[in-house]
Amino acid sequence: MSDRPLSGIRVLDLSRVLAGPWSTQILADLGADVIKIEVPGKGDDTRAWGPPYLHDAHGEEELSESGYYLCCNRNKRSVAVDLSNPEGAELIRSLAKKADIVVENFRVGGLKKYGLDYESLAAINPRLVYCSITGFGQTGPYTNRGGYDFVAQGMGGFMSITGEAGGQPLRAGVAMADLSTGMYATVSILAALRHAERTGEGQYIDVSLLDTQIAMLANQSMNWLVGGIVPGRLGNRHPTVVPYKTFDVADGIMIIAVGNDGQFRALCRELGIEELASDPKFATSRQRMVNRDEIEGIVQDLVRGLKRDDLIDRLVACGVPTGPVNSIQEIFEDPFVEARGAVHQFVREDGVKIPTVAFPPKMSKTPPRYDYRPPMIGEHSREALNDWLGLDTDSLDTLESAGAIAQRNSDTPA
């Protein structure tokens, strides 16, 4: 596994829900050895966030792993440890001493009572990179609140710009605050790891859903900070680029996304309205913004009776960005998915097939690998503890008898 960028890096994952597991899955895809610590018998909260759930090899019996859990837990090994058991907490400290990275998303101060907070672990492992993911951060007015993605999307302003004009605010169809927080956490961890490798000095990373959601407002936040403009909901319209929206066609809906004046001229030629490309009302992006309703109405009237796929082909040929509005089923049936290897299929020992969406970047020298399917609860308790700590059978038996750890037989369906 030496061809992988993070080969030899050990990650202790104490996180649950999505932002933390999303971050550690990325690290695992890049070669880190990730031990996922789970509650014995219960596991990660998202295991129960279904339906749908995984089914047995015959497609009949429903198993206990939800699609939600499966989306962010590949390439990890599951170790079931009871943190409330003193021997279990001590075991985590021993693992942290061997780790390069710890990721957790307990409430602020939630791990201190177990002696698993940053200060306690940094005292025994000064090079440790320790990332805490919370709803609202370790400081500020909301530190004691629990936080979920939905709350962060609402509080962070994102929902105020999502939805139809005049309609109700909407959250995104996936957990954008969680996912973006996981990505920011990963980038920060990698930067801190680089610092630790150079200096031998670890550090503490405090990342919150609300901080990240605010950062993800991007140009919309700058419209307020620079111009004092409070953006509102525009449906599928772009706040400053026109025409850039969905349009009704004869057999459905499609996207036309004109990003500059050259593309607008190409659109006008293709639709037979070339004279509008030089019309002062529409010739520049600024003027199209001023006269948004008029030019969008003209384009809509011209495309309403056209077939979607034919128009897409025509616009692609002349360099105008366009595409269909696919369902989830349609995108996974698109030839792009197979051509780009966007889905990887695991086959478990009991014949259960577990599909997973592949790591998106294509790396020419160190491509990601898929060494571990999403684990069952405690599946690797003995294996991983032996690998990291050298614990023998007797020691592991003692920990199991004391209730500090639990082990699942990997041949037993979850």
Describe this structure in words.
By secondary structure, this protein is α/β, with parallel strands linked by helices. It folds into two domains: 10-216 and 339-406, Crotonobetainyl-coa:carnitine coa-transferase, domain 1 (Rossmann fold); 244-327, formyl-coa transferase, domain 3 (2-Layer Sandwich). The chain contains 16 helices and 14 strands. The chain has helices at 19-29, 67-70, 86-98, 118-124, 149-155, 176-199, 209-215, 218-227, 261-271, 285-290, 292-303, 308-317, 328-333, 335-339, 381-389, 393-401, and strands spanning 10-14, 33-38, 53-55, 62-66, 76-81, 101-104, 129-134, 203-208, 244-249, 252-257, 322-324, 343-347, 353-357, 405-406. The strands form four sheets. Strands 8-7-6-1-2-5-14 form a seven-stranded mixed beta sheet, sandwiched between helices.
Characterize the overall form. Answer: elongated
Rg from alpha-carbon coordinates: 25 Å
Integer average pLDDT: 95
Query: Helices and strands: which structural class?
Result: alpha/beta
Number of helices: 16
Strand order of the largest sheet: 8-7-6-1-2-5-14
Sequence stretches where pLDDT stays below 50 over 5 or more residues: 410-414
How would you spell out the order of helices and strands? EHEEEHEHEHEHHEHHEEHHHHEHHEEHHE
Say what the CATH topology of the largest domain is.
Answer: Rossmann fold
Instruction: State the CATH superfamily name of the largest domain.
Output: Crotonobetainyl-coa:carnitine coa-transferase, domain 1
- Into which percentage range does the β-strand content fall? 15-25%
How many distinct domains?
A: 2
Gap between N and C termini:
28 Å
Q: What CATH architecture of the largest domain do you see?
A: 3-Layer(aba) Sandwich
Largest sheet: 7 strands, mixed
Tell me roughly what share of residues is in helical segments: 25-40%
